[in-house]
Every structure is written in C-alpha cells, then in structure tokens.
Specification:
Blueprint lengths: L3 E6 L9 H4 L4 H9 L18 E9 L4 E10 L13 E8 L7 E3 L10 E9 L2 H4 L3 E8 L7 E9 L11 E4 L5 H4 L7 E9 L15 E11 L11 E8 L8 E2 L10 E11 L8 E8 L6 E8 L5 E2 L2 E2 L7 H12 L5 E6 L4
Parallel strand pairs: 1-14
Antiparallel strand pairs: 2-3, 2-9, 3-6, 4-5, 4-7, 7-8, 10-11, 10-19, 11-14, 12-13, 12-15, 15-16, 17-18
Amino acid sequence: ESDTASEISFQFNKHKKTPSIGSHSSDMASVSSVSGSVLSVYSGDFGSVDAQGTVEFALDYDEKNREFQVHVSQCKDLAVVDEKKGRSDPYVKTYLLPDKARMGKRKTSVKKRTVNPIYNEVLRYKIEKMVLLIQKLNLSVWHNDPLGRNSFLGEIEVDLASWDWSNRNLNWYPLKPRSLSAVNGVDHRGVMNLSIKYVPPGSLGKMCPKNPPSGEVHIWVKDVKDLLQLRPSGVDSFVKCYVLPDTSKKSYQKTRVIKRDTNPVFNHTIVYDGFHTEDLKDACVELTVWDHEKLTNHFLGGIRLGLGTGLSYGISVDWMDSTQEEVAFWQEMMSAANEWIEGLLPLRSL
C-alpha cells in the first residue's frame, strides 16, 4: 500500500523541563519566523477610515543579484485616522501574492504625524525572475497604532507578469479600498489526503507476532492536491514529518521527492513506536510540505495533528496550535484504537 514504510521510536525526556522543549528549533521554526500568516496581509483594525491619497514607488529587478526591489518614495493626502489630533502615523507594507511563505512581508519605517510621509526606502526580495513573474505585488499603507490596532489606509495590487520592466521611474498610483476577494482564499496552500492509526501497547493479543510492546502511531501520507506552483514547470515536493516536541534526527522522516507536479502522490507510511496512550495528549505530529531545490527547500504548507491545548507535558509551547479540523482528526484516532482514520486536511502556514 505504500512505497516506503519507516519505523522509528518516539523518545524524548518527558519530565526534563529544559528550554529546548519549549523553544525547539527546526526547519519550521526558521521559516515561520520570517513568513507569518498570509492573512496578516490584512491584519489589524480596519476602522472606518476611507482609503484616499496616492503612493509613489518604482519597481526594478537586479539580474546580477537576483533581487526584486520596491523603491517606496512617498505618499500624499492620506486619510486622517485620529481626527481629534489630526494625525496619522503611516507606514508601507508589501507582500508577494499568493503568499509563498518564504517571502514574508516587507515594510518601511513609520512616519509620525503626517499624511504626506516621505520614505525613500527600498524593500528587497531575493527571488528568481521566473518565480517573480507568476506573482502579484500587494502594496498597502497603514496607520501604526501603539496598541497594535493598525488602520488600513489604502492599497494597490500589481500583476508582475504584465509589468513593464523597462520602466524604472518613480510614478504615482491612487490608493484603493481593501479587496475582500484578496483575503478570501489567499492562504489556500492545498489539501493533504492522509490516514492515521493508533495501536495501543499489547492491544493485538499475545499470539500476534506484531503485537507492539509499546504503542505505535501510523501515518499514511497518500497525496496532496493543489500545491502552490513556484515555477512554470510545477513544483518538486516532498513531505517532512516530526513528532513534537522531539525534533531530533530520530524523529525526522521524509518522503521521496515528486517532481513537476502540483498534485503529488506519495503513498508513504511512517510508524512511530514508543507511544503510550497518555503521550497522545502532549505530543503533536507535524507534517510539512516543501519544494525541493539544490540550495534550499521552500516551505509550502503544513498541518499539526494534536489536541491544540498550547501545552506539552505541562510546558507552554507555540506549536501545540492545531486547528479544529486537526484536533477532531486526532481525537477520532485516539477514540478508535487499531482503526485507520481517513481525512482531507487543508495545508496552512505554521
């Protein structure tokens, strides 16, 4: 039923409360620190401010350094957020859409007490030209609030495939109201088709030669649909798996790479032994999908299967953040010992 069956032990110091458990470092952690959630394109409090004014910027691509550059010059006649004080504290934020995770956001400094801010800053993205041409630039202006309730002041979206790259001049563009259509579905990263099963210790009977002395969690990664396409030829994807909080090499498993396919079929089974029933409340199976390249792998999306309590063995951890769908999937596995539980779960930024 699968091309590969890997069996590894689930082992970590459950009672040793060290900083490494609460603040584990993995490929996931390094990516999420720069990417953030895609929906943070529109994070903050929109308030009742109507978009108005213009923004002056220029776009360029540095072929030598393989760098996309957004030269943000200035804005004029922005909306006033604090009418009593007659002030706005604006800054400019950019995203490449659809969110490719590794790109993250870029933003300028905040200019205080002005509706005509001057920035003269360059926001830079290290990216291949052919990848850039299948994306859109979202440039938005925001009022910075000390309490974090930032107000949206306007935006512009540029289709980079049709952009005139010979035009390196600064030009003025009108700011538009926020696009709700851009929020809906902007974080669609694909869907993973998988099955999981928990085999409690000794549950198969004494006469069974495969009766595990300790519990086992079986993970059958079948396929993924509608992955983000990072290049015209498709995507070369593979799946990584960890059982958190263990991020050691013993916990790490991965599938083979499926080339040039946004709907890869993996059919790969992983078995983790060393699981006791009580561990299921504190552990989390993290499955992440990556695009494989020679120099670096790019994060495409992932899921975390667990109870989503925010705690692991009494320690607060940021990775115990499963969605309602992921929690329900894990709970169904816990309540149906020795049975395969099938599911389709959307990939997300982690």
